[in-house]
Amino acid sequence: MTQRKRQKQKPKQKSTILNLDGQVFKNKEARKKKKPSKLKKTLVNQRKNKEFAETAYYDYTPTLDLDLCVLTFLSKLFKIQTKTKITNTKKKKKTRRYVFGIREVYKYASLGKLCVVIIPTNVDNTLEIHKIINDIRKQPNTHLIFSCSRKKLGSIFKKTLRISMIGVFDKSGADLLFARMLMLAKIERKKERLKLLQNNTSQQLKETETETETEKETEKEQVKEKKKDDEKEKNEEK
To answer: Where is the region Disordered (predicted)?
Structure first.
């Protein structure tokens, strides 16, 4: 009975569809279209409605040294990961060093699995990105670094896509570059804080100067009024 059933069962024909380039795909794969996530929808809507934040999301302006350090750090991680993929084909997820995209980076950063999050300086300055960056800042073990452009970060990983965020799981193999990268970012942050303090002090000095000038003017007016009153009293007595 089992042999007859096997003979009767015909092999299932795989329903295929041709792509414009002539490549063959399964119908199921062709039908499946990725739906945009809630985060992507909000980002697109904010971009369309021009709901941009007043202040910039990055707290310092990156230098060429920092950009070069970031690029070398990421390129080294990329080389290490490509080697491990060839050797350990079964353990791909365990050997993964980094993650792309806002949604994925935000997910792993909120779980506290990332040591660094690298964000380029030319991402759309929307309110949602401000919220995401502030949430990542609250994580104690994750460092934030603002450097390079989206196109430059994509070119390191040999991708034509523009990368908006990169999250790093494991920094082993590039520890010295990681330490130098953090040091350079710290120096730039200190410089920005000093600039802000200088600007605030200069504004305060200007405000105090204007206040003193107004006080002097009011005093002069009061003196003039007193003189007028005295003259009037003298005339009345006469």
So the answer is: 198-238
CA–CA separation, 132 and 162 (whole Å): 19
- Domain holding 113, by residue range, is 61-189
CA atoms within 13 A on the CB side of 74: 28
pLDDT (average), residues 221-233: 73
Q: Radius of gyration over alpha carbons of the chain, in Å? A: 32
- The model's pLDDT over 168-225, given as tens digits with 9 standing for 90+, comes to 998 888 899 999 999 999 999 888 888 888 877 766 666 666 766 676 677 777 777 7
If one counts the domains in the chain, the total is: 1
Separation CA 191–CA 207 (nearest Å): 24
Which residues fall within 8 angstroms of residue 67, CB to CB, at 6 or more apart? 147, 148, 152
pLDDT, tens digit (0-9, with 9 covering 90-100), for 23-54: 444 454 444 566 777 777 788 887 777 778 77
Identify whether 197 is part of a domain.
Answer: no
- Whichever domain contains 166, its CATH number is 3.30.1330.30
Long-range CB pairs of 105-110 (<8 Å, 24+ gap) are 105/136, 105/165, 105/166, 105/167, 106/39, 106/132, 106/135, 106/136, 106/165, 108/167, 108/169, 109/135, 109/136, 109/139, 109/142, 109/167, 110/135, 110/139
Kindly list the distances between the CA atom of residue 143 and the CA atoms of 121, 200, 228, in Å, as whole numbers in the listed order. 16, 27, 69
Q: Please, which residues bridge with residue 144 across strands? A: 117
